[in-house]
Every structure is written in C-alpha cells, then in structure tokens.
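Reviewers asked in the last cycle whether our approach scales beyond single polypeptides. To address this, we selected a multi-component target totalling 228 residues and predicted its structure end to end. The input consisted of the following lines:
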Amino acid sequence: TQLLEQSPQFLSIQEGENLTVYCNSSSVFSSLQWYRQEPGEGPVLLVTVVTGGEVKKLKRLTFQFGDARKDSSLHITAAQPGDTGLYLCAGVQSYNTDKLIFGTGTRLQVFP
Amino acid sequence: GAGVSQSPSNKVTEKGKDVELRCDPISGHTALYWYRQRLGQGLEFLIYFQGNSAPDKSGLPSDRFSAERTGESVSTLTIQRTQQEDSAVYLCASSLSAAWSAGELFFGEGSRLTVL
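The resulting structure, written as structure tokens, was:
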C-alpha cells in the first residue's frame, strides 16, 4: 500500500508552460517535503511545509500543504529545461517517528 | 568530501551470492536512512537508524535483508542469497535532526545493484 500517491506519473511539456504536481494521501502528515532527483544522483530537498494551508514560494516554484495536512501540490510557472527531473514528495506521519516515506514520483520533461 | 558517501557505486553479482553495501554519512548526523529505488520509480523505505539503533525495520523486504550501524557513523546493508528482484539502486541518506521535526535528508549517489 502506497501512502503517498503522486499525479501525474509522467509529464512532458514545452518550455514556458505551467504545470502542477499533486501528492495525495488518506493519512495526516506532521510535515511534508518535496525533493527533486536528477539521473544518477540522490534526491535534493526543495522545500519543507509543516503547517496546514501553508504556501511557500521558491522562485518559479510554489508549494502548498493542504489544510488537513493530507495532501500537497507543487506548481511550476514558466517551466524551463533545467526543471527536468523526478519530483518526489515525502512525509512523516506522526511526531513520534522518524520514518520518512516517499511518494510514487512524478517524472517531468521540459523540452526547449 | 563532506557529503554522504556510498560504496560500491556499482555491483554486479550472481543470483544466490551475498552483497554488502556501505554508507558513510555526514559527520555528526544522527539519523541514517536506507531506501531502494527501482528503475524509474519512487523511493521505497527500508530502514532508518537513530544513532546505532533501528527503531523501525518494517521496510526490510525479507529476512535476507539486514542492516547495522556502528559508532553512530558507518552503516552496512547486507543482502543474503540475492535474487533478481533485488536489482535496484540502494540509496542512503543522513540527517542532522529528526525527520518528525522536518529535518533535511542528504542523499548519497546510491549503489546500483544488478543480480544476474
């Protein structure tokens, strides 16, 4: 059973387009993170959200944590080829565990 | 360097052989994680350590998998009697603070295991 489902699984777009990636669960998470992974490398942290309803912006990337802390979204404005990669959400379900589980992943390809 | 180091970077083995994968975390990081990533997929949680203790081993796929950590530093993931379905990239990560407090995980580049 996958606790964190991401959609879409694959996304192929042209440079300049906007996109949104979703991370959904039926469980509540104490915090949620987004990572990006490029081929042959480990994932790298983009952002952490901890409060329900929280919105964080990182240049052209906007991250939102759902009010009920069960879901999150990543919106990219005016995508660039450098945004290409595997996007992963990850979360911790409670405050008495350090088990960080990852979502199913969204593979983004941005063409020039 | 100062990052997480994993070895070997690539390992090809025959079905039935045992393999050991090593992870050197960032110095001072108390938490250490192992994940498995099959081609093109997300990360599957295997085990994590706080210090030298492993509070949650629930992700280990079978009793052929084991892991240990010593000196609150190096960790070894051992796979006995390897099977073809064990082929994957095994990623190690370390963190300065607990995951529940939203600590950042720093990943190594992974060990790619191929079982023939």
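Residues 9 and 111 of chain B are 4 Å apart (CA to CA). We regard this as preliminary and will revisit it once experimental data from Aim 1 are available.
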